[in-house]
Amino acid sequence: MLRVAVPNKGSLSEAASGMLRECGYRQRSDHRELVLQDPDNGTEFFFLRPRDIAVYVGAGQLDVGITGRDLLLDSGAPAEELLALGFGGSTFRYAARPGTAAQVEDFAGRRVATSYPGLVAKHLADRGVSAEVVRLDGAVETAVQLGVADVIADVVSTGTTLRQAGLEVVGEPILHSEAVLVRRTGAEPSPAVEQLRRRLQGVMIARQYVLMDYDIRAELVDQAVQLTPGLESPTVSPLHDRGWVAVRAMVPRRDTNRVMDELWERGARGILVTDISACRL
Ligand SMILES: Nc1ncnc2c1ncn2[C@@H]1O[C@H](COP(=O)(O)OP(=O)(O)OP(=O)(O)O)[C@@H](O)[C@H]1O
Ligand SMILES: O=P(O)(O)OC[C@H]1O[C@H](OP(=O)(O)OP(=O)(O)O)[C@H](O)[C@@H]1O
Ligand SMILES: [Mg+2]
Questions:
Q1: Does the C-beta of 158 come closer than 6 Å to ligand 2?
Q2: Residue limits of the ATP phosphoribosyltransferase catalytic domain (predicted)?
Q3: What does DSSP say about strands 132-135 and 35-38: parallel, antiparallel, or unpaired?
C-alpha cells in the first residue's frame, strides 16, 4: 500500500486534494477525516499539517507527501523534491521598515522574526551574517511594530500584508517556493511512487497545454509548424483535398490566442482548440 501525506489545511490543502482527484484518486469529503483508504489505487492518504509532512516522509513513515518547498527546506528533514507541482507559488523574503536596511548584511546584530527559523538561520549563516532569529508562529509582520524584531522573513504572495504593516522587502528573494512532491532522500524508486509521479505530471501537462488542430495548404505547412512545434513533433495528416493537410500539436495554453492569430495570418483555417483532460507522455 502506497502511503501519501496531503496538507490537511492551509494554502496548499484544497489545491493538493484537487490535483490528486484529477489524478483519479479518492479524496476526503469531510475535512475532519485524517486518514483515507483508496483500495482501488492501492493507496492510503494521511492528512497532516503541511509543516509536518517532510518530517514524516523523511523519517520513512510515509512514502511521499505534498508540501511547500519552503516548508521542506525549513524542516531540515532528510527529504527531497521529486516533482514541482505548479501551484501554491510564493516567494520567501526579508522585509523591514523603509530606510532601515538595504541588504542582508545590514541585519548583523539585529533581530529577525520568522516562522521559518531553519530556513532563515541557514540563509544568514551562508552569508556570514550574525543576527538573532526570533521564532514566531505566524502573523510575523506585526513583530516589528510591537518591537519584538527589526526585520521579518516570511512568505510574500501579493505583498498586501507587508504594505499594510508598513514594511518593504529587502534584498532578493530568499527562495521561490511552490507545492512539491517529496520523498525520503535517496529512497529507492518504487513502481507505486513512479505511478503517482506520472499521474501528477500528466495532470500538470494537461493543465499547461491545449491541443490545437488546423488545416493548411500543403506548401505552407513547414512554415506553420514552426509556430506549433509540439512537444516532440506535430502530427501532419493528408486531407481528402490533396492540396491541404491537417496538423495537430500541443501548444502552451498561455500562447493559445497568439498562436491562433499567427497561424491564421500564415493561411491556416479551421483552427480548433481542445482541452486535454489527462495524458502520459
Ligand atoms: N498567500 C500565501 N500565504 C501563505 N502561504 C502561501 C501563500 N501562497 C502559497 N503559500 C504556501 O503555502 C505553504 C504554507 O501553508 P500554510 O498557510 O498552510 O502554512 P501556515 O501559514 O504555517 O499555516 P496556517 O496559516 O494555516 O496556520 C507554504 O509552502 C507557502 O509558500
Ligand atoms: O503577500 P500576501 O498576499 O499578503 O500573503 C502573504 C501572507 O500570507 C501568509 O499569512 P497567513 O494568512 O497564512 O497567516 P500566518 O502568517 O498566520 O501564517 C503569509 O504568512 C503572509 O503573512
Ligand atoms: Mg499561513
A1: yes
A2: 49-202
A3: unpaired
Distance 207 CA to ligand 3 centre (A): 26
User: Helix-strand-coil percent breakdown of the chain, rounded to 5?
Assistant: 35, 35, 35
pTM for the predicted model, two decimal places: 0.93
Span 90-176: which CATH code?
Answer: 3.40.190.10
Residue type, 14: E
Q: Residue 85, Cα to own-chain centre: how many angstroms?
A: 4
Residues of the chain with pLDDT under 70: none
How many angstroms does the Cα of residue 10 sit away from the middle of ligand 3?
6
Measured CA to CA, the distance from residue 246 to residue 229 in angstroms comes to 14
- The whole-number pLDDT of residue 79 equals 98
The CATH superfamily holding the domain 2-87+178-188 is Periplasmic binding protein-like II (3.40.190.10)
CATH class of 209-275: alpha beta
- Residue 35 Cα to ligand 1 midpoint, Å, equals 22
* ipTM exceeding cut-off 0.90 for this assembly: yes
Between CA 124 and CA 105 the distance in angstroms is: 9
The residue ranges of every structural domain in the chain are 2-87+178-188, 90-176, 209-275
Cell triple for residue 121? 538561520
pLDDT, tens only, 107-138: 999 999 999 999 999 999 999 999 999 999 99
Q: Order of strands across the sheet with 269-275?
A: 235-238, 244-252, 209-217, 269-275
11 Cβ closer than 6 Å to some ligand 1 atom: yes
Position 281 scores a pLDDT of: 87
Instruction: Say whether 209-275 and 90-176 share the same fold.
Output: no
CA 67 to ligand 1: nearest atom: 29
164 lines ligand 2 (CB under 6 A): no
Nearest CA to ligand 1 atom 22: 51
